């Protein structure tokens, strides 16, 4: 495993790989926060003259006002970015003779507003195919079409507390998490704008709020959702029997900032924290004899270690991917054998696991 | 020590010129200046002479801050990581740890210089930017040069304080041109001496003490097989070089060296090299021939260029504490040869290097503060030297003030970063290490501009990690107020709970309750329904949550549970005064319902509270109203009923009916 780093001169809020079809991604995009003007930058990595080292270079950028709070890749090379100002922008990342460039395709403004009409901060975006949902401090959920750049549906009073994270469970259901630790499930198509179900979490101390900071779902078994909390713990939910988490365990010492599975290797989960940790959770090769008739044992419910807290502890190995980062790692992304992460120490790290 | 010059800035404003000036700090780096006419107790009270004649302007002056520039920002961000690594060693690191750290710092500076140079060579940038970058290069080149020297003399100290070998290294590093040409010459092989750079390079290498390389190049000369060259080679080869690890005592080495010197000088005077004047010159240099060195001095670009080479040939065992006096001797000689007089011929960098060699720490630190890097260098160097125990600065009473000096520098640098919007996180790292830091962080963290909740949570996280709970609370309180203003009441309540400020929670809860009694609408049910254990922060909130639960029971038509909870609430002693009417009105439907829901005992409780709490309350408020001359007592109001007397009447009636019914039922035995 090799780690390469590059200082960016801005705090990174989001980092995403641009997908490539038959090889590991070597272009990524970052969004920044905390400066007067923030940037969406495209970076490319290239093998340098030294073995196992990459040279990381910024190849294009788009400057914007306000923190970049969400950045997601859709349709392989399109990019949806939201800023805290409630502006959604869609970009194409095009490769023109080995050089990547960022071209803005359009945007939607003023996505989030308080009751009096003043702008409310937007906390992020999640995407599903061509659809996106934005969420913010006004508790509103906007469901947008990224192809037509228009709002298809909105749930104006989704939450009376700020929504901190959201996730498409499938094409018609969306999960939101808020700062007081409540997960809600909405049907994005139904006229009824009430939550389908609501389930609160609780932390170590009942008297303290524990925010849901991020959520992700299992790439092949979509009903398994893992949420990360402000206290640094992970909670595993089965969407078929919601109400209580299946298991909950203490992981990081500080808030989890992002959590996600490897998209093509579901046995690998990654978590990053406010304390500068970046961990990999790998499912061990099962030691007990498997039922031979099962072609894909890990695909079956009974073998998924996340669904059983005892097995989670026994079968999952946690390793730290990076050390010595003393500030929050705000975001990461995994593609093939390449990992990228970045955060408040104003650096991006590229980890090649092979 | 020379006086620092006072720098004058002119405010070009007519009113300011006539009236005078006043100024106030806006924050750590911005000064607001405006026209001002002093008014004292003896000034006559009349319209100012300056009124209405000139435009009134307010000027904002800001200090120059170089780290906004992205390339330099990378430098401080990266160096900040190293700085934190130094703190982690807690002064327990080994010498090699600190040498490694010092080198990391220098490599960061070198990388930054490289990037700046790359930018300058870029065709597209403007002339103005080029000049600015050139200026940064000058600043950081000087920093690297001084840092390297400090590293050699203070951190990477050789056994028995021998300095010459490392000084040679330092010179080579900062005057790399000879070595570069030498590499090219070595590629030529035999044809080398046809290059016009040949002799200057050989001489340059000799002046830098790089005998090995010089010999290799001499070998490439087409006449290298002649006697003269062979003689020269012999002399160069046999020159004794002092080596601490060589096992020779200094005395032994000296006698060896003197023997070699006398021998070589004899050879020279015998004229064995006179056929090759260039070679003869070179050998003269290595014997320390005064005249030859003086000739070379004239070629030097600055005073220290040939110092280490000269020491190598004349004082190879020179110790660190002797370096100052040698440097001074050399500087005089250099000035003499160059024809400089007075003291103005030394540039700032020249002077700093002299001070380092003289081990005059006070002067070094004083000078490097003026380098124009917003104190980055002086802060990090002082900190590093302090950590490896090499910082000895004498204060007025001959005490070592190293600790307080480092403290003050960290404080200054940290506060400066804190006042920059996007660098506050780094500022905290510096403040954290100084003795006044906690107090400063407490003040400054609450001033970090927070524009949204994400940013607020970042500041809170930083405060939490450092145990600054007052900052945490303050920010939560501000967020609660903001949310109230934005009509996000549930969100406000959550922030107030986070602030652990029971007063704030109670105030927001009151808003929920009064809003309910006025409108009948329960705000933010999703928030209230999920407060759970967090409600215990304020009795008022407990009341609200329980009252909300009562509504939930009612909604679900679980009337028995609802009735129980209502009576509990009546008995709870945490009912706010203004809520008595609403709470008692809520009992009416339960009392009046077709099938009995309130037993007699509970009905008595309701009656009791009606008479003991609500009636006196009505009396009191009526009296107050009369006093105020207002006829209608409308403080105690519920959305369902306007008139308070009506309410009391209705409740009494309902209680009486239910009581009659309940007593009959309770006393009927069904056998």
UniProtKB/TrEMBL annotation, chain A:
A Pfam family that the UniProt record links to this protein: WD40
Keyword terms: Nucleus, Repeat, WD repeat
InterPro entries (alphabetical): WD40/YVTN_repeat-like_dom_sf (IPR015943), WD40_repeat_dom_sf (IPR036322), WD40_rpt (IPR001680)
Keyword Repeat found: yes
Subcellular location: Nucleus
GO CC aspect terms: nuclear pore outer ring
Protein name, UniProt field: Nucleoporin Nup43
Lineage summary: Eukaryota, Metazoa, Ecdysozoa, Arthropoda, Hexapoda
UniProtKB/TrEMBL annotation, chain B:
Domain of life of the native organism: Eukaryota
Alphabetical list of InterPro entries matching this protein: Nucleoporin_Nup85
GO cellular component, one term: nuclear membrane
Signal peptide: none
Protein's cellular compartments: Nucleus, Nuclear pore complex
Main localization, broad class: nucleus
Cited Pfam families: Nucleopor_Nup85
Keyword field: Membrane, mRNA transport, Nuclear pore complex, Nucleus, Protein transport, Translocation, Transport
Annotated GO biological process: mRNA export from nucleus; positive regulation of DNA-templated transcription; protein import into nucleus
A GO molecular-function annotation: structural constituent of nuclear pore
Oligomer status and interactors: Component of the nuclear pore complex (NPC).
Described function: Functions as a component of the nuclear pore complex (NPC).
Family: Belongs to the nucleoporin Nup85 family.
Annotated protein name in UniProt: Nuclear pore complex protein Nup85
Originating organism: Hermetia illucens (Black soldier fly)
